[in-house]
Amino acid sequence: MAEILQVNNLVTQFNTEAGLVKAVDGLSFHIKEQEIISIVGESGCGKSVSCLSVMQLVRPPGKIVEGEVLFQDKNLLEYEANDSEMRAIRGADIAMIFQEPMTSLNPVLTIGHQLSEMLIKHENFSKEDALKRVVELMELVGIPDAENRVNAYPHQFSGGMRQRVMIAMALSCNPKVLIADEPTTALDVTTQAQLLKLMTDLVQRLHTSLIIVTHNLGLVARYAERIYVMYAGRVIESGTTKEIFANPRHPYTLGLLRCVPRLDDEEGRKLEPIDGLPPNLINMPPTCAFMPRCSRKQDVCRREPWPALEEVSEGHFVSCYVKSQEKAR
Ligand SMILES: Nc1ncnc2c1ncn2[C@@H]1O[C@H](COP(=O)(O)OP(=O)(O)OP(=O)(O)O)[C@@H](O)[C@H]1O
Ligand SMILES: [Mg+2]
Question: Which residues surround ligand 2, an ion (CB under 5 A)?
Fold first, then answer.
């Protein structure tokens, strides 16, 4: 399959009173048609800002400073954020499910109204046809009694049901790429798993490419074909999910894997959180940004700049001087 979206060397910064926040600092990734990938990393590593950059939805004081976002061979960053072409692509060709569902739904408009707006705006549906389609969409994402519930307001839906609405809204125009930014963190584990399954089933049926953004490697293991591990605004390791789980080479990836609970864990086995805190993105060290927290660091790590990504086996890239050989378990 051909590549549908390719991000090259993306740099996005926030000019704040405290200093320049390097939220995304040379990020590259790609996704093929119909592929499911995941971007994984701890809170604050730049996942949401990366997604917003792809959609050109970064608000001041944030600014995309550098990079390319190639979608079907067009560099989207050549468009102004409010250019009509960019607005047509956003939502219709590349859709996003945002981290905060309540902030993306308007509390004073019915669910039906909000879902039909997309169809009227992007797909030239009449009001009546749009409402019919909305009921179908709500049924598609498993909202019971859809015909009546189109008239409900967001607060009348549970968190899980609101997320289903968000999925329906994102898929309403049949996008080519869906970016789901941590869509399930506010929900209990069972609901999270159900929604992820629903979403992956739907994108497969609709031939949509899916980017699952999360801090939970365990959650995406079953669904993503490839994984990008992010740290301090960059990818530090990427590869097939199988390879990342079997042969993690970056000590940070290893740490993330050791935080993942498993069904077959013996009782009492402790999960190991990664010691220390993520770096301050205003004062980044010139070395590998993970070095201060890394228990496997060597002299070279203290001396040399952050290493470039190196291909260690086919399709498996890692940015590390040490390159761990340990198994996660
Ligand atoms: N409006 C803003 N002004 C200043 N800094 C910002 C702004 N938005 C984000 N940042 C900073 O950019 C960095 C990346 O933030 P981002 O929201 O992308 O992290 P994330 O990986 O999505 O985290 P989480 O898992 O908590 O959602 C953080 O250090 C954050 O503080
Ligand atoms: Mg986020």
Answer: 47-48
Question: Of the residues 42, 49, 103, 229, which should be mutated to test ligand 1's pocket, given the most ligand atoms within 8 Å of the CB?
Answer: 49
Distance, in Å, from the CA atom of 192 to the CA atom of 218, rounded to the nearest integer, reads: 12
| Tens of pLDDT, residue by residue, the chain (329 residues) | 899 999 999 999 999 999 999 999 999 999 999 999 999 999 999 999 999 999 999 999 999 999 999 998 899 999 999 999 999 999 899 999 987 766 778 999 999 999 999 899 888 999 999 999 999 999 999 999 999 999 999 999 988 899 899 999 999 999 999 999 986 667 787 888 888 999 999 999 999 999 999 988 988 899 999 999 999 999 999 999 999 999 999 999 999 998 887 666 666 556 677 888 888 999 888 999 999 999 999 999 999 999 999 999 999 999 999 999 988 87
- Alpha-carbon separation of residue 114 from 86, 172, 251 (angstroms): 21, 11, 45
- Residue from 15, 16, 25, 48 whose mutation best tests the ligand 1 pocket (most atoms within 8 A of CB): 48
Atom of ligand 1 nearest to the CA of 46: 18
State which H helix or E strand residue 24 sits in: strand 19-32
